[in-house]
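Continued from yesterday's entry.
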Amino acid sequence: MRYPIVLLYLNQEQKYLIQVPDIPGCQCYASSMDKGLDEILFAIEDHLTLMAEYGQSIPTPQSFETHVGKHDYRGGIWAIVDIDITPFLGKSHKINVTLPELLIKKIDNLVASNPEYKTRSGFLAKAAINELQKA
């Protein structure tokens, strides 16, 4: 999933506050933008790990446009981080799925040409997540 993040420079403290608006409470401080981008990735992973341990749903990211106009983020620098949420969805279970042969071939061709999916199961999981986000 792609989460928008905002980097806010705090003049008095001479450091950055980096926040993930779609993950309440997920933030960190850093002395530079580069360090901040690294630190927020660790913060997101830690936050999602705790949420998974407590059985909470992984938040669905909203669009950048949803957040950019909010007063709390005025003057911030925006970025998008891509987070693989699969490890935070719980234990994997093997299931049997029946699909038309042509559909399976199309899925397999896409998976073979796009390393983002890695496997047919990875593709089906991502497709399911995308559909669940719409609901």
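--- second protein ---
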Amino acid sequence: MTLVLALALIVAAVAVVGAVVALIVVLTRRRPSPPPAPAAPHDPFAPEQSVAGDPRALKAGDMVEYLGTRYFVRGSLRLREGGFTWSEHLLDADTIEGQKVWLSVEEDPDLEVVYWTEYEIGDLRPGDRTVTVEGVEYRRDEHGTADYTSEGTTGVGNVGRVEYVDYEGPGGRYLSFEQYGGGQWEAGLGERVPAGTMTIYPGS
């Protein structure tokens, strides 16, 4: 076999290999990509859909951002009445001088987070079926007594009992009366936390 013939055979072989590679590339590019997997169904009222972070896991040392203001969780009350449990968290109130600010978290059955501010009770007392505060009428909703345990700083004992009377108003507003250990009644005004307005930053 002459050198010229050998070179011609080598060139032909390289050309065939190149053509095969080009054909594979073309066929690969023409192959349609698989359709995206359908999104998994989710509960639109699940905790992660309404807030960034799980409010059910709140504890002393965590930070909460609500409507542009950041608060540290100073302490928590874990309450139980029969088989029903819920939590109340005392937030630092540096931006609201002289007022206590609380966050309540409960599932009944959907998760409900309520932002509470202390209200000067004055002559106001629970008992009536309706109570009007600052022009808003609240209707009596619940009355009961719960056992609690305290974590961090809450202003009450480590364990005890609290009597409560809850009222509900329009537009996700609430009025609550609480009496710890048979002491003086305290009152608070609450507003339901809208979806997407709260972010939770877990502490260490």
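The helical segments are 3-30, 47-50. Confidence is low (pLDDT under 50) at residues 3-11. Will compare against the first tomorrow.
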